[in-house]
């Protein structure tokens, strides 16, 4: 099995966290998102533990809630003592209603609206990660109006190619995110931030990309950021206190993906950072990170019911399920690879080569191609593994499909964390 929390029981059914997935599908219906809460907790603890050990007690991982955001997830992150990265009024509102401590929220995004900035300041978010000149002006204006001093980091594009899918690489010079060092924009915005009386400028942020398995892009980011921090110190006298290295650690979607040793990885980055900052004569920095995918992806799976099995001799075998791109658009967007199992016969030999297709009116609506499955029949349950990140959060209502429910599995029991959208819900907002 891809992960240790997955197993096969005496009925031959796939289990997650000790709970029978076929029974879950029967109890809650499909499509169904299932999240193993203990696994999410374990992932949070690995981050917090490794970061505290190697970066020091003042460091903080901010969970990137874009990966998976709902009220109880925010509560869990709060219980685990992590910070929360939000990018919209919606994520911020969810966090606030869940009782998340606002001083541990970082407000991100490349185009925050004036209303969102005002909302963030009035709720007392810990810091904003500013992305552009207009935003800095809006934060200054709003902080002045509220009579507060707002903490801000500046997002800088270090200009690194992280060797990941082009659509999820974000740290390059021509990226829509942040201010490039190379063009002089980062220095210009730094000076602007330093001149704002209602802004407490805390330091810098960078994020090179997502689903990264190599340490080298992170080590290069450290080099470039420290070089820039030293340059800023020489030119303005300002010494950054915080360095946020973003998120991006890869997870295993299939057996071909490497296993990443988080602790070793963080150790390497921390050692490198310490060596470099000494070389530049800089004081110790408080390090933040923003893991999203690596906190939730491997804790999740999606259950579907098989509908038609269409064999086109000499061409393809289609296994259609009762969900697809509306609940998981990642194949359609990135040709993302997944591991799929027949949850009812999880230990049987997978000998049917097939394309697992969704039910939307789009030929691109696939979960994956060339997948090996123990031949499924109509009514059987399929499990798509590693769907905890960027599935629920990227779901749409295409074809007027109601959004699936999400259940937590914990201590061998299950409970609904987000209820299934009903047909009536679909009309709720129609006037
Ligand atoms: N911080 C910033 C500023 C980000 O832009 C992101 C992700 C993260 C942290 C979290 O990165 P992670 O640890 O999850 O790799 N929808 C795509 C992923 C987009 C990631 C966008 N930014 C996917 O499904 O693969």
Q: How would the global form be characterised? A: globular
Amino- and carboxy-terminal Cα gap: 48 Å
Could you tell me the radius of gyration in angstroms?
23 Å
SS field, number of helical segments: 12
Overall residue-averaged pLDDT value:
95
Number of strands: 21
**What characterizes the major β-sheet?**
9 strands, mixed
Bound molecules: ligand LLP
Oligomer: single chain
Helix content: 25-40%
Strand content: 15-25%
Class of secondary structure makeup: alpha/beta
Give start-end ranges of low-pLDDT stretches. none
Notes on the structure:
- By secondary structure, this protein is α/β, with parallel strands linked by helices.
- The protein is 31% helix and 25% strand.
- It is built from twelve helices and 21 strands.
- It has helices spanning 21-28, 37-55, 71-79, 89-97, 114-123, 133-146, 185-194, 216-236, 262-279, 293-296, 330-334, 423-428, and strands at 6-8, 14-16, 19-20, 32-36, 60-64, 83-86, 105-107, 127-130, 150-157, 179-180, 199-205, 242-244, 286-289, 300-312, 316-321, 340-342, 352-357, 366-373, 381-385, 405-410, 413-418.
- Strands 4, 14, 15, 16, 17, 18, 19, 20 and 21 form a nine-stranded mixed beta sheet that branches. Strands 5-6-7-8-9-11-12-13 form an eight-stranded parallel β-barrel, surrounded by five helices.
- Helix 2 packs parallel to helix 9 and helix 5 crosses helix 6.
- The longest helix is centred in the middle third of the chain and has 21 residues, at 216-236.
- The radius of gyration is 23 Å and the shape is globular.
- The mean pLDDT is 95.
- The structure holds ligand LLP.
- Ligand LLP is lined by residues 64, 67, 85, 108, 168, 170, 207, 210-211, 246-249, 290-294, 330, 334, 390.
């Amino acid at each position: 099995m891809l992960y240790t929390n997955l197993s096969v029981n005496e009925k031959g059914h796939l289990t997650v966290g000790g709970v029978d997935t076929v029974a879950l599908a029967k109890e809650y219906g499909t499509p169904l998102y299932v999240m193993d809460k203990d696994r999410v907790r374990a992932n949070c603890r690995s981050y917090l533990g490794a970061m505290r050990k190697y970066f020091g007690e003042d460091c903080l991982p901010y969970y990137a809630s874009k990966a998976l955001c709902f009220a109880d997830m925010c509560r869990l992150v709060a219980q685990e003592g992590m910070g929360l990265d939000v990018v919209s009024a919606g994520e911020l509102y969810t966090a606030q209603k869940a009782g998340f401590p606002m001083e541990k929220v970082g407000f991100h995004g490349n185009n925050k609206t004036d209303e969102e900035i005002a909302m963030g300041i009035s709720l007392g978010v810990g810091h904003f990660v500013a992305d552009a000149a207009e935003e800095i002006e809006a934060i200054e204006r709003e902080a002045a109006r509220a009579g507060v001093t707002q903490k801000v980091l500046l997002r800088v594009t270090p200009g690194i190619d992280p060797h990941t899918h082009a659509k999820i690489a974000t740290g390059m010079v021509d990226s829509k995110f942040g201010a490039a060092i190379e063009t002089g924009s980062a220095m210009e915005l730094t000076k602007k931030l330093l001149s704002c009386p209602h802004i407490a400028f805390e330091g810098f942020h960078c994020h090179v990309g997502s689903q990264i398995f190599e340490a080298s892009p992170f080590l290069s980011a450290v080099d470039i950021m420290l070089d820039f921090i030293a340059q800023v110190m020489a030119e303005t006298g300002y010494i950054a206190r915080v360095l946020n290295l973003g998120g991006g650690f890869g997870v295993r979607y299939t057996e071909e993906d490497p296993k990443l040793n988080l602790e070793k990885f963080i150790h390497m980055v921390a050692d490198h950072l310490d060596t470099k900052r000494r070389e530049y004569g800089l004081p110790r920095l408080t390090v933040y990170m923003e893991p999203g995918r690596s906190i939730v992806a491997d804790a999740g799976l999606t259950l579907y019911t098989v509908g038609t099995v269409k064999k086109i001799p000499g061409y393809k075998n289609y296994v259609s399920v009762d969900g697809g791109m509306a609940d998981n658009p990642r194949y359609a967007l990135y040709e993302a690879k997944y591991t799929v199992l027949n949850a009812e016969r999880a230990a049987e030999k997978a000998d049917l080569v097939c394309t697992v297709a969704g039910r939307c009116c789009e030929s691109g609506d696939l979960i994956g191609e060339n997948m090996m499955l123990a031949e499924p029949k109509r009514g059987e349950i399929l499990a798509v593994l590693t769907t905890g990140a960027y599935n629920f959060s990227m779901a749409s209502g295409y074809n007027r499909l109601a959004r699936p429910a999400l259940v937590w599995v914990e201590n061998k029991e299950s409970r609904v964390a987000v209820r299934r959208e009903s047909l009536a819900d679909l009309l709720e907002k129609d006037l």
